[in-house]
Amino acid sequence: MSSAVRKTRSFSLDPELLSEVERTKGSASASERVNHLLKYALEMESKADLFEEAARFFAAVPDERAERRAFQRAAVRSWARNEPVEAGQQTLRLVSSARRGLPD
Question: What is the pLDDT of residues 83-98, one digit of tens each?
Fold first, then answer.
């Protein structure tokens, strides 16, 4: 873990946490281990916040089965259009789409 500039700060740690840091630090220093753990914790916190935001967003979606099924069918059709195909088939599809004035 390298950083061009490090700032020295003092924090109090519970004895159990300090002993766990010492036990799991390996060849790294305790400071490097704490930095790694803090970065990991902040990343996990950020992901949890995003998950909660997504849950709130999708909670507003109506739970109407017909609407949900229509969306799923449209998504499957979209994915099918985007499946990789052989080069010859792709060229053929692009030419025929262009002749019809359709997007590829």
Answer: 655 554 544 455 444 4
User: Can you spell out the DSSP letters for 28-95?
Assistant: S-HHHHHHHHHHHHHHHHHHHHHHHHHHHHHHTS---HHHHHHHHHHHHHHHHHTS---HHHHHHHHH
Q: What's the pTM?
A: 0.52
Are 94 and 86 in contact by the 8 Å Cβ rule? The answer is no
Question: How many CB atoms are located within 10 Å of the residue 15 CB?
Answer: 7
State both tokens at 28: 């790294």
* Mean pLDDT for the chain overall: 79
Q: Is 26 helix (H, G, I), strand (E, B) or coil?
A: coil
